[in-house]
Structures
1.
Amino acid sequence: MKRRFRAAPSVAAVEARDMHAVEALLAEDVVFTSPVVHKPYQGRAITAAILRGVLRVFEDFRYVKEIGEADGADHALVFATRVGDRELTGCDFLHVNEAGLIDEFTVMVRPLSGARALAEAMGAQFERIAREAASA
């Protein structure tokens, strides 16, 4: 079975802040690797809760480039955003399973000052993120 993943639905869902659509793209066993936390998170509930937190702290978020083949398993979505007064550039590296669902989601950001601002803003969100994941 060939993988079919078109980034357009995920890009549209994120840019529209439609977390129901984003969550539907995640495999149950998705592994999320944060740019500011050492240990990866596993599972749809915690990944979706983290992504909701990210959408609360990112301002003026937009994808600016997509890299990958439609039938491939690996995709890179380059984005630009702001956290407070810090401009960030980042990339979502996605791997999709045979069913076309995202089973690996790795985020990288730059510059260091932006990563620090992101870490601080997400740290302030983490109690809420943990509650959301537990109630899912």
2.
Amino acid sequence: MFQRIIDGISASTGTTVRLTSLAAGAAFALFITTCFLCAAAFISVLEKYGPVQACLAGAGVFFLLTLTAAVSYWAYKRESRKQAHIAAERATKSAASSMLADPMLLATGLQIVRAIGIKRLLPILAIGGVALGIIASRAGVPDETSAEPAE
């Protein structure tokens, strides 16, 4: 039993290492290609306009690449926050609904009602209902103390 688990882990690890090596080789080749393309563009602008303009053109291209990367990072971070917020809301809703649908919880509740009596339990249930309503209404309001600072 354990041998199959170990074999599966070693096979997946070997595959992961091979794929990572291929990706690293492709990234290195892309880096070298980009270096040669940048050098060719620099020499072309250098011969036509001069050294200062060639440096400024190279800086402009890399500045635009940096801006593109920053904007895409910002959009990804914003989308991931939105997805995390939606997932948290779904988790709180499903936890509340699954707790009320649990047969063991309902059976325990019925036994408590039988043991205490319905007349004595009504005020406790009313207070519990009010508390549950307050908690449910506060679930959608973000907590100001746990909010992250704006970037």
